[in-house]
């Protein structure tokens, strides 16, 4: 993702995995450790935007569960309203040039 955007959709699943499997060596810990490691080292730290997407009510739980991760997401939080099917159709129509 160097020089671009890395989107991690359903990031809150990391908390669910941690609750289910516990601490130490589980997949969620490995994912977060790898992500933090890459985000903290040059040249990535200044050349990539990482977007963690999850329900707003689970953001604080995610960052509480993984404090090292929270340190890298102190800049911007963007809140998006829930989408309806009509919103998605509108975007597709605009981007593709079709009328659905």
Question: What's a quick, concise take on this entry?
Answer:
This protein is 49% helix and 8% strand. With 100 residues, it is mainly α. It has a two-stranded parallel sheet with strand order 1-2.
Average pLDDT number: 78
Q: Which bin fits the share of residues in helices? A: 40-55%
Low-confidence stretches: none
How many alpha or pi helices? 5
Anisotropy-based shape: globular
Please provide the count of β strands: 2
Strand order of the largest sheet: 1-2
The largest sheet is: 2 strands, parallel
**Helix/strand-derived class?**
mainly alpha
H/E topology pattern: EHHEHHH
Strand content: 5-15%
Rg for CA atoms:
16 Å
Distance between the termini: 33 Å
Features:
100 residues; mainly alpha; two-stranded parallel ribbon
What secondary-structure arrangement, pairings included, does this model have?
Layout: E1 5-8, H1 13-21, H2 27-40, E2 49-52, H3 56-65, H4 67-70, H5 85-96
Parallel strand pairs: 1-2
Helix pairs in contact: 1-2
Describe this structure in words.
- The protein contains five helices and two strands.
- It is mainly alpha-helical and 100 residues long.
- It has helices spanning 13-21, 27-40, 56-65, 67-70, 85-96; strands at residues 5-8, 49-52.
- It has a two-stranded parallel ribbon.
- Helix 1 (13-21) packs across helix 2 (27-40).
């Amino acid at each position: 993702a160097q020089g671009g955007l890395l989107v991690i959709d359903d990031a809150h699943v990391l908390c669910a995995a941690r609750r289910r499997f516990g601490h130490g060596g589980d997949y969620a810990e490995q994912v977060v450790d790898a992500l933090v490691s890459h985000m903290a080292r040059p040249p990535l730290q200044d050349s990539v935007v990482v977007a963690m997407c999850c329900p707003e009510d689970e953001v604080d739980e995610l960052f509480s569960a993984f404090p090292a991760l929270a340190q890298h997401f102190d800049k911007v939080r963007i809140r998006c309203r829930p989408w309806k099917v009509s919103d998605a159709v509108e975007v597709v129509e605009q981007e593709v040039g079709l009328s659905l």
